[in-house]
Structures are given as structure tokens and as C-alpha cells.
Amino acid sequence: MTSDLLAHWLGSDSSLLLMWAGPRSNLGLPWIGGLWGALAKSLLPVLAFAAVAPLLWWFFRSSWREIDGEATEHRVKLRDEGKQDYRPAVMFSIVALVLTAQEYYGGSRFYSRYVRPWLRSLEAGQHDSPGGLGSYVDVLFWGELYSYGWWAVTRILGYTVIPFLAWKLIFRRDSLIDLGLRTRGLLKHAWIYGLCLAVVLPVVFIVSRSDEFASYYPFYKQCSRSWFDLLVWEAMYIGQFFALEVFFRGFMLGPLRKSLGSGAIFAMCVPYVMIHYGKPYLEASTAFLAGVALGSLAMKTRSIYAGFLVHCTVALAMDSLAILAAGGFPTTFWPQ
Fold first, then answer.
1. C-alpha 10: how far from its chain's center?
2. What is the CA radius of gyration of the chain?
3. In CA terms, which of 40, 51, 79, 254 is 20 to 30 Å from 305?
4. How far apart are CA 258 and CA 260, in angstroms?
5. 248, 274 in Cβ contact below 8 A?
6. What is the pLDDT of residues 104-115, one digit of tens each?
């Protein structure tokens, strides 16, 4: 009933908000009904943490120890020189502002209230004066893709352009390349990328068989309409994943590396988990483990690219499995 009301309120762009509402309304287990099933599901992440945390510690413990040593030396040096590093405070301030702006201006509600009416006005203007930007607008046919386009653009700008510009204005001597963008050593650590996929992809395949997963992915429900829809959607999806990795594993970890040491990874994971709220419960609750793994990988390699490749491969696999379960890939390039 609630989903129907939300769909009626949002019109053709309802999928963005239903993406938020759907997983929250299905918190039970298929083999245990009612309250006990929901309570049992709430405890599954605890089992996941108990199983995965020791493996993460074993795999990254030497890297964490090395990073902590660097941070201790840095703090001692600052103390002896009577100086203070303001980078963590500035970074957290920027992160708070960016995430808050995205929550209020980068979602479906802002799009539906402000962006979609503007697009419709451009389209309607073609009746009086043909030509111009409005001739390329078709809200009825492309409305859902436009809404995700707004989502992707605001994420990419908010995660990369805005924080990097602010950082360069405040710390002009800092190199932005040091915020996780170095490519040196990428091939050397390629085996870690393969190992991560070997662990994660089987889990994705198992989870993909659930109804909750199939009803949630892919976000853009028209992507099976044509290859054009699918390719444009995946390009936007991959673009925002790159921006996300830059923001959380580059922009956040870079300034914190020398101040918090390995603790920077766990500090980064808190807002990272929170951006998953609204996704299926098991995915959101275990995002902390993924954040620790990807953050540790970024700190070890001093680069976000290995984590980006892992994130992208998993996301594309999830979309592909959901599309196959729903009837298969598109059969035409251009939508009819």
C-alpha cells in the first residue's frame, strides 16, 4: 500500500524512492516467517563479522602495523615541532557538507520537484519555438533514465570535483595525486584483485537467487529494454563507482593516513555504511566489511584503482545476474 502511494506521488520516476522503500519492507527470511524470521535475519551480519574479521586481520595485519608506525612518527614529529595538522578536520568538514548536500539535492525528491518540471518546460517550449535543447528531451519515454542521470551526475560532482577543488584551494602545496590516484604498483597488486573476486563473486551468485535481490537490481528497471538503455545506465553506474572510490578510499584516507594510521580505515567505513541505508539489509549491514577490505587495499597500494575494479566487477555481476533472472539481456540496440 505504501509503495503504491509513493509510486502515485512520484509518477514515472517512482523507482528511485521505491528503491529506498522496498528493501526496508522485506526484512524476513524466506524459510522462517514473521517476527522470528526478521529477528534471525538481523543477526546474520554478526555471523559474517565473526567469520570475516579474522581473515581481514590476518591478511592486512602487517599493512596496518606499518601504517600505524608511519602515523606515530608523524604525530611525534608534529609534537616536537609544535605544529598541528588541520587536514583531518578540513576533510571531515568537506565530507559532512558533501554527503548532506547529496542527501537533499542529489536524490529523487529534488529531481521530481525541481529538475523534472524544468525538463518538461523545455520539452513544452518546442510547441511555440521548435529547436534548441528541448528538442532532445522526452520526459515520458526517458524519465527514469533522466532521474538516474541526475543521481549519477550529483554523485560524481560531489565525490570528486567539489572536494578536490576545495582541497586545492585550502592546501595548495598538496598534490591531488596523493589522494589515491597513483597508478604505480597497480599490476604488482593485481593478484589481490583476483583474490577478492574469488571470495566475493560466489557470495554474489548465492545472494542473487533471493527475491529481495532480484527486485532491487538493477536500479534502472528499463535497462533490459535495449542495449542503449543498458550501456548508458552501466556507464553512469561505473562513473559513480569510480567517484565513490575516489571520495571514500582516496580523499578520506589520504589526509587521515598520517594522523589516525590504520584507524582511518574504520573511521571512513562509518559514513560509507550509511550511504548504503535503503539497500537490502544484508548488503547494507556488511558494507562495513567491504569498506575495511577496500580501504585496507587502498592504504596498502596507495591507490584506489584495485578497489575500483573490485567494486565495478561485483556491481556489473549483480546487475547481470538480476537481468538474466528477469528474462535476459536486451535483443535490440535502440528502444522501441
1. 24
2. 22
3. 51
4. 6
5. no
6. 999 889 999 999
Alpha carbons 10 and 291: distance in angstroms, whole number: 33
- pLDDT tens string 233-284: 999 999 999 999 999 999 999 999 999 999 999 999 999 999 998 888 888 8
Of 258, 286, 257, 256, nearest to 272 by C-alpha is 286
Beta bridge partners of 279: 277
Contacts within 8 Å (CB) and 24+ apart, 135-140: 139/12, 140/12
10 Å CB burial of residue 79 (0-12, 13-18, 19+) is exposed
Domain ranges of the chain: 44-325
Distances in Å between the Cα of 111 and the Cα atoms of 123, 133, 149, 256 are 16, 18, 10, 34
- Within 10 angstroms of residue 230's Cβ, the number of other Cβ atoms is 21
| pTM (two decimals) | 0.85
Partner residues linked to 32 by β-bridges: 29
Residue 22 pairs in a beta bridge with: none
Q: With beta carbons less than 8 A apart as the criterion, state whether 221 and 151 touch.
A: no
pLDDT band at 195 (very low <50, low <70, confident <90, very high): confident
23 prior amide bond cis, ω within 30: no
> What letter represents residue 87's amino acid?
R
| Cα-Cα-Cα-Cα dihedral sign, residues 292, 293, 294, 300 | positive
Is residue 188 a contact partner of residue 306, using CB atoms and an 8 Å limit?
no
The rounded distance, in Å, linking the Cα atoms of 193 and 112 is 39
Answer whether 264's CB lies under 8 Å from 299's CB. yes
